[in-house]
Specification:
The chain is rod-shaped and about 100 Å long. The longest helix has 72 residues. The strands form 3 sheets. Strands 3-1-12-6-9 form a 5-stranded antiparallel sheet, with no helix packed on it. The chain has a 5-stranded antiparallel sheet with strand order 4-5-10-7-8, with no helix packed on it. It has a two-stranded antiparallel sheet with strand order 2-11. Helices cover 35% and strands 35% of the residues. The relative contact order is 0.17. The N terminus is likely disordered. The protein has 2 domains: 73 residues; 127 residues, Jelly Rolls (Sandwich), CATH 2.60.120.40. Strand 7 and strand 8 form a beta hairpin. With 203 residues, it is of the alpha+beta class. It contains 1 helix and 12 strands. It is found in: Secreted. This is C1q domain-containing protein. Its main location: secreted.
C-alpha cells in the first residue's frame, strides 16, 4: 500500500515537472516569436518614421492653408464719407455715401448701416463737421441702443467745427451699427464727415 502511494506521488511529481517544462518551452517559443517580430518592427522603423514625417508635413500644409483662408475671409473693415451737406431730421440715419473701403461687404452705402458678418469685437468711429453757427448732435447706435454720442459746432461761432467718437463693442452676427441725428441737424459734407469700422477679433 505504501509502495502504491509512493508510485502515485512520484507520478504526480513527474507530471508536474513535464507540465512546467512544456510551459517553459512554450514561453521560450513565444519569446523567440516576439523577438523576431520586434526585430522586424525595428527594421521598418525608419520607413514608418519617414511616412510619419511626410504625413505631418502634409497636415501642417493643409492646416496652414485653411488658416490663411480663414484669415483672409475674416477681414472686415470699412470707411465711408459724406459727400454733400444735408439736413437730417430727428432720429434720421446718416448715410455716408462715398465708400473708400468695404472689406467683407458689411457696410451699405444706400442705408448707412453696417451689418456684422461675424460675431466678434469691433471698433467704430464717427466724425461729423458742423455748418457755421450751428450745433449738431449725433449718436452711434447698435441695433436700437446707443453706444456713443458726439457733438460738434457752436451756434455763436463763425466757424464750422468737428467732433468725433470711437467705440469698441462686441457684436453678434447680423447686429447693426449706424449713426443718426439726435435732433434736427445740418451736417457739412464735402468728405469732412465720415464713418468707419473694423473687426478687431473674431469669436
Amino acid at each position: 500500500m505504501q509502495l502504491l502511494c509512493l508510485r502515485h506521488t512520484v507520478f504526480s511529481i513527474m507530471l508536474l515537472v513535464w507540465g512546467t517544462l512544456a510551459e517553459m518551452k512554450e514561453d521560450d517559443t513565444d519569446k523567440i516569436k516576439t523577438t523576431l517580430e520586434q526585430e522586424k518592427e525595428i527594421m521598418t522603423l525608419p520607413q514608418n518614421e519617414a511616412k510619419l514625417w511626410r504625413w505631418l508635413a502634409d497636415l501642417e500644409r493643409r492646416v496652414g492653408n485653411q488658416c490663411d483662408k480663414q484669415t483672409i475671409n475674416s477681414i472686415v473693415g470699412f470707411t465711408a464719407e459724406l459727400t454733400t451737406s444735408q439736413n437730417y431730421p430727428r432720429l434720421k440715419t446718416i448715410v455716408f455715401d462715398k465708400v473708400l473701403e468695404n472689406q467683407g461687404g458689411g457696410y451699405n452705402s444706400h442705408t448707412g448701416v453696417f451689418r456684422a458678418p461675424y460675431r466678434g469685437m469691433y471698433l467704430f468711429s464717427v466724425t461729423i463737421h458742423s455748418i457755421v453757427r450751428e450745433q449738431l448732435l449725433l449718436e452711434l447706435m447698435k441695433n436700437q441702443s446707443y453706444i456713443g454720442r458726439v457733438v460738434a459746432g457752436d451756434s455763436k461761432s463763425d466757424w464750422g467745427d468737428s467732433g468725433s467718437v470711437s467705440v469698441i463693442t462686441t457684436m453678434d452676427k447680423g447686429d447693426e451699427v449706424y449713426a443718426r441725428s439726435m435732433y434736427n441737424a445740418n451736417i457739412y459734407g464735402n468728405q469732412w464727415s465720415s464713418f468707419m469700422g473694423v473687426l478687431i477679433s473674431r469669436f
